[in-house]
């Protein structure tokens, strides 16, 4: 592929039992772009991110990262599941930040960031510590690097989680409603960090209900509805010219927020 | 026992006479306990991991093992290991037969406890480990087990106490551990109350040290809060 498409999803399908949750998702993320997924709860946004990062296996269609299919390789026209080692290697190229932070509670902030650096990227401890210090500084937590997660606020924990993901120098960063579990006054510190990453050219696929943030930071917005992409385009197009009634009513819920702009 | 005169027939005299047997008995009890706890902890982590994450057939095997071991009396296990194996031409010294039987028993308990502890670690921990690219054994070693082991510290200490008490059963296959040592002393001097009380106190002291060690470990890992 001559273009700069980093992630390409084509016709991605996923069912849980008899329920089809993803009904053919097409989506592209270009190098350096921020693409946001919006949509009502239950529309399949989380499931899609989890398929990208191989926390779930998609049943149909394909997800290509840098042109390589995620989770399997094609051999003689047939799909073969990748080995655990190969899957881990693919995951290491994709960072993920979770709604519930999921910091390792038995490790300090610094150790949380260092774990992947030393065990996955096999960096020497000293170098890993330097990288951790750098990224904890970037998210404004240089002074807290010796703290355990329980000693940090929700916003601080989420910033450590972002540092942990980005320190691995992933090709792509996934964010799944990373501010939804935070007290309202802590949301902006996390969004600020994400905005900084976006401006530094990080490629990001973001699920968020923070519509102001989505509108301001995204290059591309995808509205998901009941397992399908209902509308996709620039923020101006999606927010300014919602084509479906469902998107209009979805955006209507955030009306108060837009009134503030 | 409160009579402190040092003449034959008094507790202190008889205890001094038997000091080497007593020390040896204490040593046998403590070493058998320590070895059992060591083996059972290592094997229990393996069994517990199999129960929590194994392929279905491995889970089934581990489950059968655990339920079997928890369902039969330890004494039967000890007798089987000692006499039963001898029938098949496998001769295990009594001490080792005892350690093996007790380990098999304690492994089941620790395995089951570990499974519970592992499953009580939130799903998100495993997923966060996956997300940074850790392989399965790395996730286990660096993410799940440190948290699970901390959670299973109290039941692990309990198993340790049970093991120490369980070593008394080894006397039945002739392992001269602390209890049998005292029985042999009593057979010579008939100071029944004195020496059994003495044995009881020694067991109490061993177990109090284990409990204290457990409490120390818990304090040491108190930063592991959730
Ligand atoms: N592990 C699962 N098992 C069964 N159903 C699931 C599972 N995960 C998600 N679902 C279902 O899939 C649908 C989409 O969920 P999700 O991807 O979490 O949506 P969103 O993130 O947009 O709120 C929901 O109906 C949810 O109940
Ligand atoms: Mg979701």
UniProtKB/TrEMBL annotation, chain A:
It is a peripheral membrane protein. Its main location: membrane. It is found in: Cell membrane. Gene3D superfamilies: P-loop containing nucleotide triphosphate hydrolases (3.40.50.300). Residues 7-251 form the ABC transporter domain. One of its GO terms (molecular function) is ABC-type amino acid transporter activity. Transmembrane segments: none annotated. Pfam families: ABC_tran. One of its GO terms (cellular component) is plasma membrane. InterPro entries: AAA+_ATPase, ABC_ATPase_HisP-typ, ABC_transporter-like_ATP-bd, ABC_transporter-like_CS, MetN_ABC_transporter-like, P-loop_NTPase. Keywords: ATP-binding, Cell membrane, Membrane, Nucleotide-binding, Transport. Belongs to the ABC transporter superfamily. PANTHER family: AMINO ACID IMPORT ATP-BINDING PROTEIN, L-CYSTINE IMPORT ATP-BINDING PROTEIN TCYN. This is ATP-binding protein. It comes from Teichococcus rhizosphaerae.
Automatic annotation (TrEMBL), chain B:
The keyword Membrane applies. Gene3D superfamilies: MetI-like (1.10.3720.10). Pfam families: BPD_transp_1. It comes from the Bacteria. PROSITE patterns: ABC_TM1. One of its GO terms (cellular component) is ATP-binding cassette (ABC) transporter complex. This is ABC transporter permease. The lineage of its organism: Bacteria, Pseudomonadati, Pseudomonadota, Alphaproteobacteria, Acetobacterales.
């Amino acid at each position: 592929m001559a273009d700069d498409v980093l992630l390409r999803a084509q016709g991605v399908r996923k069912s849980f039992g008899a329920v089809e949750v993803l009904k053919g998702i097409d989506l592209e993320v270009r190098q350096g772009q921020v693409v946001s997924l919006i949509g009502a709860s239950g529309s399949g946004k989380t499931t899609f991110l989890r398929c990208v990062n191989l926390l779930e296996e998609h049943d149909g269609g394909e997800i290509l990262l840098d042109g390589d299919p995620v989770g399997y390789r094609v051999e003689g026209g047939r799909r073969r599941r990748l080995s655990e080692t190969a899957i881990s290697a693919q995951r290491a190229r994709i960072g993920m930040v979770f709604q519930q932070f999921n910091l390792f509670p038995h490790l300090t902030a610094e150790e949380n960031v260092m774990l992947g650096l030393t065990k996955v990227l096999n960096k020497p401890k000293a170098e890993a510590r330097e990288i951790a210090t750098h990224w904890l500084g970037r998210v404004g937590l240089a002074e807290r690097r010796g703290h355990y997660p329980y000693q940090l606020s929700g916003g601080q924990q989420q910033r450590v989680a972002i540092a942990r993901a980005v320190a691995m120098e992933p090709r792509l960063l996934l964010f799944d409603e990373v501010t939804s579990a935070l007290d309202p006054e802590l949301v902006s510190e996390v969004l600020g960090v994400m905005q900084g990453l976006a401006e530094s050219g990080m490629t990001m696929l973001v699920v968020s209900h923070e519509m102001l943030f989505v509108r301001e930071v995204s290059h591309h917005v995808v509205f998901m509805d009941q397992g399908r992409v209902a509308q996709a385009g620039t923020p101006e197009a999606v927010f300014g010219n919602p084509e479906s009634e469902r998107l209009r009513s979805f955006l209507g819920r955030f009306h108060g927020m837009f009134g503030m702009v | 026992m409160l009579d402190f005169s040092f003449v034959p027939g008094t507790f202190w005299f008889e205890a001094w006479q038997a000091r080497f047997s007593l020390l040896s008995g204490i040593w046998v009890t403590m070493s058998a306990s320590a070895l059992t706890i060591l083996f059972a902890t290592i094997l229990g982590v393996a069994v517990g991991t199999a129960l929590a994450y194994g392929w279905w057939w491995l889970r089934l095997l581990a489950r059968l093992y655990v339920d079997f071991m928890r369902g039969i009396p330890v004494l039967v296990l000890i007798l089987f290991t000692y006499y039963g194996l001898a029938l098949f031409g496998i001769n295990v010294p009594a001490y080792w037969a005892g350690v093996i039987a007790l380990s098999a028993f304690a492994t089941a308990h620790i395995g089951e406890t570990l499974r519970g502890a592992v499953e009580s670690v939130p799903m998100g921990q495993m997923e966060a480990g996956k997300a940074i690219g850790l392989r399965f054994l790395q996730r286990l070693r660096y993410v799940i087990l440190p948290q699970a082991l901390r959670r299973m510290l109290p039941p692990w200490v309990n198993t340790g106490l049970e093991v120490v008490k369980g070593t008394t059963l080894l006397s039945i296959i002739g392992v001269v551990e602390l209890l049998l040592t005292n029985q042999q002393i009593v057979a010579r001097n008939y100071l029944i109350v004195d020496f059994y009380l003495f044995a009881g106190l020694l067991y109490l002291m061993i177990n109090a040290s284990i409990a204290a060690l457990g409490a120390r470990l818990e304090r040491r890992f108190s930063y592991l809060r959730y």
